[in-house]
Design brief:
It is found in: Cell membrane. Helix content is about 45%, strand content about 20%. It is an alpha+beta fold and about 260 residues long. The strands form three sheets. A five-stranded mixed sheet has the order 4-6-7-9-8. It has a two-stranded antiparallel sheet with strand order 1-2. The protein binds adenosine-5'-diphosphate.
Length: about 260
């Protein structure tokens, strides 16, 4: 609580009354803490690829440039780091646009089956490269949802991309599209590394990573973006896992057509 007190002169000028102004600042302090944490997180995420780039450039300057094979290898590694920076900046901008309500959703009835299939297909090459089986199963060929198809495809891609990232070769990813009561749902299930049950809710926080080393260059923003997009559709999103080594299951729902 913030208090502002100023004496009000009494009739005889003796300051016998006091005006007190009370203001609840806990909310302000909380916002400030969140802002500070955000800046610290962004700085940390930027620093890692920049440090890697710096050392690669320095080594090139110190002579590695003379050996063409080494130079090419270094360039390829620099490319990876530049891509990481570009992705982080894109995701930060995207998150800020969504959070400030600047993303306009074009919601209309869409066949969710098509949206999900198209999203999953875009990642099939990556799943194959990793030796992970990717399967899409649908209850019916047409399941209508009220959605912005581009944004929902982005959510699907995000979940499938994570599933691939956290599933070792030989594993399997199953994407299901089905109807619920007044909603429709998409589930992305994998046989990968799994998540400790007590961390499940935190996955959707900005920058949250279960294991920094394991997340292999991820930004920790993907699920925060997915959550905002799903909530903006009046849908729900959550994660389930029986524990480490037992795979993970992410589900999101959207309003069914006619369920206004
Ligand atoms: P990242 O860019 O790190 O993947 P996300 O926001 O997409 O960021 O995910 C946050 C964290 O949630 C990941 O770093 C990882 O620890 C965990 N996670 C997400 N998807 C899965 C999954 N399918 N299996 C296990 N862990 C996952």
């Amino acid at each position: 609580i913030d208090a502002l007190a100023s004496p009000i002169p009494g009739e005889n000028g003796t300051g016998s009354q006091v005006l007190l102004l009370l203001r609840d600042v806990t909310e302000l302090r909380r916002a400030e803490t969140i802002r500070q944490e955000f800046v610290a997180n962004v700085s940390h995420e930027l620093r890692t690829p920049v440090a890697a780039l710096k050392s690669l450039v320095e080594t090139l300057e110190e002579g590695a440039l003379e050996d063409e094979e080494v130079a090419r290898d270094f360039l390829a590694r620099m490319h990876v780091e530049v891509d990481k920076l570009a992705q982080l900046i894109e995701e930060l901008l995207e998150l800020s646009r969504i959070e400030s309500g600047k993303v306009e959703l074009r919601i209309h009835p869409v066949n969710l089956v098509e949206v999900v299939r198209a999203g999953a297909e875009r990642l099939r090459p990556q799943a194959e490269r990793q030796g992970v089986d990717l399967e899409v199963t649908v209850e019916q060929p047409e399941i209508l949802a009220l959605a912005d198809p581009e944004r929902i495809q982005q959510v699907v891609i995000n979940l499938v991309h994570n599933a691939i990232k956290f599933t070792p070769p030989g594993g399997r990813i199953t994407v299901r599209v089905y109807s619920l009561d007044r909603e429709v749902a998409v589930t992305v299930q994998d046989t990968g590394v799994g998540i400790e049950p007590e961390l499940l809710d935190r996955l959707f926080e900005r920058f949250f990573k279960v294991d920094r080393a394991r997340s292999a260059g991820g930004t920790g923003l993907g699920l925060a973006i997915a959550k905002h997009l799903v909530l903006a559709h009046r849908g729900r999103i959550w994660a389930e896992s029986e524990g480490m080594g037992k795979g993970a299951r992410f589900t999101f729902t959207l309003p069914a057509v006619g369920a206004a």
